Amino acid sequence: MITIDLEKLTKKLKLNQKHADQLIIHNTTIAIIENTNKAKTKDIKQLENTIQAILKGPLKNHLPIPNKPTKIIAIIHARKTDPMIPRILRTKTKKNIAYHTASCNQHLKTILTKHGIIKK
Fold first, then answer.
1. Span 1-10, mean pLDDT?
2. CB 77 within 8 A of CB 36
3. Within 10 Å of residue 8's Cβ, how many Cβ atoms?
C-alpha cells in the first residue's frame, strides 16, 4: 500500500488545478480522499478532477499507479455533509469508480476495508 499527499506532489509539479488531498494505492485499486469540514458540490468536482488527472492528465506519469486500475474509490471525508452530496455521488458511481462520503475516521476505515485497500 502506498499513500501519497497530493498537496505536496502538486506543489512539487507546479500544478494549479483543484484536486483531492490524498491518494492510496493498493495493488490495482486506487482510493482518492478529499478531507473537508463540510462536504459541498465543489468537493465532488475536485474528486473528478483528480480522477481525470490520474487516468489521463498531468499526474498520470508521476504516480506509481497500475496501467489499468481495476477500481477507483473516491471519498469525501467530512464532519458535515450537505444532504444532496450522497445523492449526487450515487448517480456518479459507475462500474469501476465508486463514490462515497465518510463522516469520521472509523467510517473511512470501513469503506477502505470494504474495498480491500486496508485489512481489518
1. 86
2. yes
3. 9
Cell of 99: 463514490
Retrieve residue 45's grid coordinates: 468536482
Give residues with Cβ within 8 angstroms of 86, minimum separation 6: 101
What is each CA distance from 22 to 15, 29, 83, 87, 106, in whole angstroms? 15, 14, 24, 23, 17
| Residue 119 within any structural domain of the chain | no
Sheet of 2-5, strand order:
2-5, 22-26, 29-39, 71-81, 97-102
Q: What is the DSSP letter of 53?
A: H
**Domain-located, residue 102:** yes
Instruction: Answer whether residue 120 is part of any domain.
Output: no
pLDDT computed for residue 16 by the predictor: 76
Asked if residue 95 lies in contact with residue 86, where contact means CB atoms within 8 angstroms, the answer is no
Q: Note down the domain range covering 27.
A: 2-114
